[in-house]
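Dear support,

I submitted the protein below through the web form. The confirmation email said the job was done, but the results page showed an empty box. After a refresh the structure appeared. I'm attaching both so you can tell me whether what I see now is the final result or a partial one.
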Amino acid sequence: MAIAKAERLMNLALCLLGTRRPLSKRELRGSIEAYMEATGEDAFNRMFERDKDDLRELGLVIETVENLDGETGYLARRDSNRLPPITLDAEEAAALGLAAKVWQQARLAGAASGALQKLRAAGMPEAEDSYDAPHSALEPRIPVHETAFEPLMLACRDRRPVVFDYRKANAARPETRHVEPWTLECWRGHWYLAGWDRDRGAERVFRLSRITGKVRSRAGAFTAPVPDVVTVRETVESWAGETATRSARIRLRAGCGYPLRSRAQSVTEGADGWDELEIPYGHGLDAWLVEFGPDVVVLEPADLRADVVERLRAVAKG
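What the results page shows now:
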């Protein structure tokens, strides 16, 4: 059904763009096979009006003209439906090339590569790309290893509710979550889903690596409004531990934990092979510290230390 409608819309658009004079509904019906197969005049009229509205929503400028006999005709002038020429400077071209490379490991790799080829064919300048150097140490990538990424990406795009089993870091077993997905964000090498948790009646952020089993789509519309992009990103940032409200003191094994060192407010080197760091403390820091295992010891605050210990015990129990 979707393919048939797309073909019908394409044929209608081609007819309207290819004519030099307005075409009446009668002429359009005799030119498009799907319209000829419509059962009855009322069915054809409803189909044509829907198709015309759909094309206008897609951006096609359709003019309505009345001839001397009072008959209404339609056409889409080429000069009104021609996009302006693509004008990109070398820096903008380099940014697009870099963006296309970032998605090489994801589902969007083919689409990004194809779009880049079309832009270059349309006159986009070939920018010198330092990342293509044979001995370059920098190679930008967004790793996508989680099987949940693709179905969640599609669900976010199509605004479809989903159901999946999710295991929190300090939980012994996963539990089922019913979520209205908003967007996916990559933070510090990990993918997060931000959305509305129907069971809890509140927004939540889920780390994709903790989703177990398959992501199942559900029918029906969203029940909660989707916030703007900025709000969603702030939510992900907060739940990923980037919004600090205070400081924490930790001991870190010498030569380990570079990501922690890069965020440290102060570092005191110790003589026993351990350094003492003061780092920003926000939501999610306990989960991040657990990833460094025996290379990190929390000194204070006490509640952060207790949360880390609890998570480590949950991991040890399996």
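Response: this is the final, complete result; the empty box was a page-load delay. Residues 62 and 202 are 44 Å apart (CA to CA).
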